[in-house]
């Protein structure tokens, strides 16, 4: 019975937040002087209107899901990894460079270059964990600062030593990935690629690890009470290092598959402007770091993004509307407001 | 001065206070006694405006009053000394005393005047303090004096003291009781909340006993004694424990000349040697904060020792990891169940499997076995009588006693040769306490070794075959069960010398 | 080398420092009362935008500052309400506030001015530079200290004022008390929420001023996400400065200096990406040296509320 109640309130909270988010979006649309109905219809069309748009939405959700899972995993162990963006970019740029310089092409190239990207990204996150462990450098701040450093460094790599000089002008980018090494599309002519399948498999795998393995148990207990975990014999250092490594690797994978399956090269700003990492972070927070929930919310947030692009194409409402709706969503999820509201109502009802 | 009529407080379905009547006359010390959870603290929180009664009336100076905030209470001349001190460690004593009633020059804080006023006030009531000392540097006894001064500074006529002696050494307790008599002489009235009956008999004029949220007796001191009071508190006679003779065997735990430093790198444990044998309970008595925590953490592997050796069953475990030490056969009831002993937001199931989750049959090759875990957990909570709606409920919804039983279940039912029980019954109800005591004794009778560390003398005396006393990081005395007495222990715990 | 390090470097250091100092002081006052304000960046961005927007309509710099302060203050109250009243996780709320301000300013930029990326018009009036009479006449010092925007001087004045407030006033000691032990403060009849709101409001005002210095002091324009993470640098300045106004002043000077230096380096043959990295690298290095207790406490609070 109490379990049922828990499930219901778990659902009510996000639904309420979505409602408020859309309400605020409505106000924004009205301020922009557009028809609310028309705008939301465009948003729906832009996200799910046709197979093509749906595949765009799913494609966009891939990096968000993976980055979100990375954040979620570290958070489960009690560590706030704000460095997903830098890790994602470092993963992407490493993959883009490695794939071009490997002496062979094909599936092995794909695997190795993605693996290299994950490794570098994982090490970046591990480094922040190491600084916390060894020098008590606050993880929140260090991961955040490393973002700027990583993004600037990646930008340097593709604008100086690894710049694609064959095409002139425009934004700095790396050399194109060979066809044989690309991550194939799921459906021809559509944007969504096999990265989506990978993301879903990893979601399920992560859910299993967290729930059903001893390591997952250690991660959960460390996240819920560090002292209790240590008292029980869990090695905080080890679990922290592993979970930060995995967290960074997942964020790196997000960047790598985006390079190998979508852009086929690293383009400066192409991964940071859409705020994949931050949207992933929101998905993880909204889902309370539950892997399956993170993936579902990531798809929802991706739909808001692609929907907003549709809105921008066809109306005068700028696509920043999706930022606003997302921010309001997270504000209302994080507040204990809704629960308190429900409780107070229940009390009144009982009297 | 003060009268409560028919005060009732409900939290949802639970009735914390039920139709309480109470009165306080001028210049008396009125004690409120009762077990943990009898409703004493709730009652006082209402008097001090931190809670509002569901029904009933409060009269101050014969006028009906509503007390909605601590400010209201202070305005009516009611002051409260909390069980957990309400102090600011980085502020000075004077700053703490005058807090929120600071002498000022316009917007500026007149610290000089504050110091003078506090010094005078302390002198008037015969208390010794240095107004410029930082609270974090002051001993606990002084901190309590600061709390009382604070209330006096605010001009309180009625002073409520909530479990004031819980953290004090026996000598400090004497000082406190003297101060209370002094205060009454100077015209104040005092409500003393406690569960220590000897203190009550020493200092109170009248006594109200609470049990299960109701008044179970209201008596004059002259007309009663500790036996009657404890009967009223508990509702039945307490049985004295008999420890059957067990021939003790070889030493299971051997702590040899161990030193431990605290977080500030000062020696918290100095040259401690303890041996615990099979079939023996060794009690370590002492006021909290005299190095017991550091000793516990060193034995269990949570902190490193700076010198000395620790052996379990002849294996050197000095500075080994927690896991290695546990695998050598240690189980451990931690001193703080919410900090060390459990993850509040985790389920009962997750909390129960902490010590065994890696081992067969609960897990194979790193994968948890759901079915085995469920039957293990269900058996445990049945055997240790943990009352919960489901094993998926999070631990935070368990009462203190139930959670402590859960921890005891986790640690005691394991077949380990050594149990370290730190404050195993702190703040739990009588039922849970008796149950946990029985379990500890049973473990001893099975031939296992138990190291009991407790600041509760009655617990030490009831369970220990041998008693050690810790003071300022050292062992200052050792007694056999036959030769030990409360008086001797008290003296040593307070830093006095014996004989 | 002489072209790298000269007196005008100090001039630009002061200019770069001002936004960090103001936002850092905002973070400090919040940390004092136990609130870990991750939303400084968003508050600054809001101030920068409203300042420019108001300027475009009024063409009056003082009026635009006032409007920016009021607008950002209201926005900071949203953060306060979430964190203080609804006890939302401080970090999550702070991040959401940053998102919201990026979204809202970008949105408004397009709906109000119908531009993308940046807005600028010739009629806008930037912050004036003030020559301070006496100091201006002193040969060396005059070049160094005179001729800054009023917001820079205000920042220095506020540093001193906040120091006096915290150390000498009764209310200042109550601020500290709330941060050190909120339960004790409450039991003594202090209205914790009121004090926390006051701190959040002050931080809103200070961030608005910092944002205005960015958009109307250093330049006279607004571009999307123009704070570029300065709010987070300010947060670090708060930590390095141990939430003490003087400390925040010193640490934000350090960051202002590295920012000024990194602009200098751009003239050399060093890739711009590396010079841009400098402040962040130095911040990380600085964190090895300084550690802050107050901020850690505030952070612990925020962690607590996330569980």
Structure description:
The complex is a heterotrimer of chains A (351), B (499) and C (307). By secondary structure, chain A is mainly alpha-helical. Chain A has 14 helices and no strands. Chain A has helices at residues 2-31, 36-48, 51-76, 84-101, 107-135, 139-159, 195-212, 214-224, 226-231, 236-263, 276-286, 291-314, 320-334, 337-350. In chain A, helix 2 (36-48) packs across helix 3, helix 7 packs across helix 8 and helix 11 runs parallel beside helix 13 (320-334). Chain B folds into two domains: 2-234, Rossmann fold; 251-493, P-loop containing nucleotide triphosphate hydrolases (Rossmann fold), CATH 3.40.50.300. Chain B contains 17 helices and 24 strands. Chain B is globular and about 70 Å long. The two termini of chain B are 47 Å apart. Chain C is 75% helix and 1% strand. Chain C has a two-stranded antiparallel ribbon with strand order 1-2. The longest helix of chain C is centred in the C-terminal third of the chain and has 27 residues, at 192-218. Chains in contact: A-B, A-C, B-C. At the A-C interface, helix 6, helix 11 and helix 13 of A face helix 4, helix 11 and helix 13 of C. Chain A: InterPro entries: ABC_transp_permease (IPR001851).
Record keyword descriptors for this entry:
heterotrimer; A: 351 residues; mainly alpha; ABC transporter involved in vitamin B12 uptake, BtuC; 14 helices; 0% strand; globular; disordered N terminus; B: 499 residues; alpha/beta; Rossmann fold; 2 domains; six-stranded mixed beta sheet; 17 helices; 24 strands; 32% helix; ABC_transp_permease (chain C); transmembrane transporter activity (chain C); Simple sugar transport system permease protein (chain C)
* Overall tally of structural domains of chain B: 2
| Strand content bin of chain B | 25-35%
- In spatial order, strands of the major sheet of chain B run 6-9-10-3-11-12
Structural class by sheet pairing and helices of chain B: alpha/beta
CATH C-level label of chain A: Mainly Alpha
Mean pLDDT of chain A, nearest integer?
88
How much helix is in the residues of chain A?
over 70%
Q: What is the fold named in CATH at topology level of the largest domain in chain B?
A: Rossmann fold
CATH class of the largest domain in chain B: Alpha Beta
The count of strands of chain A amounts to: 0
| Order of helix and strand elements from N to C terminus of chain A | HHHHHHHHHHHHHH
Characterize the main sheet of chain B. 6 strands, mixed
Evaluate the radius of gyration of chain A: 21 Å
Global morphology of chain B: globular
From the N-terminal CA to the C-terminal CA of chain A, the straight-line distance is 21 Å
């Amino acid at each position: 019975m109490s379990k049922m109640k828990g499930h219901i309130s778990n659902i009510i909270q996000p639904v309420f937040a979505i409602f408020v988010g859309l309400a605020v979006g409505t106000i924004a649309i009205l301020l922009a002087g557009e028809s609310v109905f028309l705008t939301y219809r465009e948003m729906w069309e832009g996200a799910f209107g046709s197979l093509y748009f749906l595949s765009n939405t799913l494609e966009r959700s891939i990096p968000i899901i993976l980055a979100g899972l990375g954040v979620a995993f570290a958070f489960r162990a009690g560590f706030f990894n704000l460095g997903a963006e830098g890790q994602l970019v470092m993963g992407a740029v490493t993959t883009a460079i490695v794939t071009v310089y490997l002496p062979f092409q094909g599936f092995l190239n794909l695997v190795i270059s993605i693996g290299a990207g994950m490794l570098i990204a994982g090490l970046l996150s591990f480094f922040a964990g190491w600084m916390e462990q060894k020098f008590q450098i606050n993880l929140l701040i260090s991961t955040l600062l490393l973002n700027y450093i990583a993004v600037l460094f990646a930008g340097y790599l593709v604008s100086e030593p690894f710049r694609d000089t064959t095409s002139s002008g425009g934004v700095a980018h790396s050399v194109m990935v060979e066809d044989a090494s690309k991550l194939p599309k799921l459906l021809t002519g559509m944007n969504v690629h096999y990265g989506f399948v990978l993301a879903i498999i990893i979601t399920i795998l992560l859910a299993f690890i967290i729930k059903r393995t001893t390591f997952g148990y250690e991660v959960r207990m460390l996240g819920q009470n560090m002292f209790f975990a240590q008292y029980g014999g869990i090695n905080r250092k080890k679990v922290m290092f592993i979970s930060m490594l995995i967290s960074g690797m997942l964020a790196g994978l997000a960047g790598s598959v985006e390079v190998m399956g979508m852009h086929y090269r690293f383009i400066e700003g192409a991964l940071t402007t859409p705020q994949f990492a931050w949207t992933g972070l929101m998905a993880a927070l909204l889902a309370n770091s539950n892997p399956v929930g993170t993936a579902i919310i990531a798809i929802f947030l991706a739909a808001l993004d692609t929907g907003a692009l549709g809105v921008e194409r066809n109306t005068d409402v700028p696509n920043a509307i999706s930022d606003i709706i997302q921010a309001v969503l997270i504000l209302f999820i994080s507040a204990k407001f809704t629960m308190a509201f429900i409780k107070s109502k229940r009390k009144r009802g009982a009297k | 001065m003060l009268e409560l009529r028919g005060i009732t407080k409900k939290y949802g379905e639970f009735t914390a206070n039920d139709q309480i009547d109470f009165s306080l006359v001028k210049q008396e010390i009125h004690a409120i006694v009762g077990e943990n959870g009898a409703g004493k603290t709730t009652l006082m929180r209402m008097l001090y405006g931190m809670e509002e009664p569901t029904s009933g009336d409060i009269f101050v100076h014969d006028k009906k009053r509503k007390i909605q905030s601590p400010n209201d209470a202070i305005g009516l001349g009611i002051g409260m000394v909390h069980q957990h001190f309400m102090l600011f460690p980085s502020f000075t004593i004077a700053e703490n005393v005058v807090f929120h009633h600071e002498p000022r020059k316009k917007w500026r804080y007149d610290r000089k005047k504050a110091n003078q006023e506090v010094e005078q006030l302390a002198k008037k009531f015969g208390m010794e303090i240095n107004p410029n000392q930082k609270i974090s540097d002051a001993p606990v006894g002084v901190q309590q004096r600061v709390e009382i001064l604070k209330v006096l500074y605010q001009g309180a006529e009625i002073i409520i003291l909530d479990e004031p002696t819980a953290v004090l050494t026996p000598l400090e307790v004497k000082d406190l009781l003297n101060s209370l008599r002094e205060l009454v002489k100077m015209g104040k009235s005092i409500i003393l909340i406690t569960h220590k009956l000897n203190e009550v008999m020493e200092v109170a004029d009248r006594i109200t006993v609470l049990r299960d949220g109701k008044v179970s007796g209201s008596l004059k001191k002259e007309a009663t004694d500790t036996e009657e009071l404890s009967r009223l508190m508990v509702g039945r006679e307490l049985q004295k424990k008999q420890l059957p003779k067990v021939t003790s065997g070889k030493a299971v735990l051997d702590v040899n000349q161990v030193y431990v430093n605290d977080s500030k790198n000062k020696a918290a444990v100095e040259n401690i040697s303890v041996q615990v044998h099979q079939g023996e309970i060794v009690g370590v008595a002492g006021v909290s904060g005299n190095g017991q925590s550091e000793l516990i953490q060193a034995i269990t592997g949570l902190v490193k020792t700076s010198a000395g050796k620790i052996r379990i069953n002849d294996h050197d475990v000095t500075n080994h990891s927690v896991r290695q030490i546990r695998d050598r056969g240690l189980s451990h009831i931690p001193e703080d169940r919410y900090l060390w002993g459990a993850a509040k937001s985790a389920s009962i199931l997750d909390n129960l499997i902490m010590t065994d989750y890696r081992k067969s049959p609960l897990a194979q090759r790193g994968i948890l076995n759901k079915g085995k875990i469920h039957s293990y957990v269900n058996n445990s909570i049945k055997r240790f009588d943990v009352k919960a709606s489901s094993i998926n409920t999070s631990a935070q919804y368990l009462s203190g006693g139930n959670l402590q039983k859960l921890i005891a279940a986790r640690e005691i039912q394991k077949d380990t040769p050594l149990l370290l029980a730190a404050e195993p019954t702190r703040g739990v109800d009588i039922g849970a306490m008796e149950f946990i005591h029985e379990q500890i004794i049973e473990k001893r009778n099975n031939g296992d070794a138990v190291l009991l560390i407790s600041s509760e003398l009655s617990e030490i005396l009831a369970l220990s075959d041998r008693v050690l006393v810790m003071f300022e990081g050292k062992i200052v005395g050792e007694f056999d069960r036959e030769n030990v007495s409360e008086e001797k222990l008290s003296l040593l715990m307070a830093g006095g010398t014996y004989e | 080398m002489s072209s790298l390090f000269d007196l005008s470097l100090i001039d630009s250091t002061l200019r770069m420092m001002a936004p960090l100092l103001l936002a850092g002081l905002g973070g400090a006052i919040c940390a004092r009362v136990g609130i870990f304000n991750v939303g400084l960046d968003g508050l600054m961005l809001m101030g920068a935008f409203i300042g420019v927007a108001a300027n475009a309509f009024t063409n009056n710099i003082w009026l635009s500052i006032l409007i920016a302060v009021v607008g950002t203050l209201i926005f900071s109250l949203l953060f306060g309400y979430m964190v203080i009243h609804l006890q939302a996780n401080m970090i999550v709320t702070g991040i959401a506030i940053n998102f919201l301000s990026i979204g809202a300013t970008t949105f408004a930029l397009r709906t109000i001015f119908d531009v993308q990326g940046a807005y600028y018009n010739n009629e806008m009036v930037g912050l004036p530079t003030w020559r301070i009479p006496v100091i201006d006449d002193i040969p060396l010092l005059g070049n160094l200290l005179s001729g800054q925007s009023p917001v820079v001087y205000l920042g220095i004045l506020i540093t001193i004022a906040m120091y006096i407030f915290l150390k000498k006033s009764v209310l200042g000691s109550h601020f500290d008390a709330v941060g050190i032990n909120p339960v004790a403060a409450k039991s003594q009849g202090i209205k914790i929420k009121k004090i926390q709101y006051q701190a959040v409001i002050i931080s809103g005002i200070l961030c608005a001023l910092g944002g205005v210095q960015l958009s109307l002091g250093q330049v006279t324009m607004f571009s999307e996400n123009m704070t570029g993470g300065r709010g987070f640098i300010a947060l670090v300045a708060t930590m390095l400065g141990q939430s003490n106004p003087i400390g925040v002043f010193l640490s934000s000077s350090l960051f202002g200096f590295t920012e000024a230096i990194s602009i200098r380096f751009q003239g050399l043959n060093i890739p711009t990406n590396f010079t841009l990295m400098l402040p962040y690298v130095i911040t990380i290095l600085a964190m090895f040296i300084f550690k802050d207790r107050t901020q850690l406490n505030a952070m612990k609070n925020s962690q607590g509320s996330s569980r």
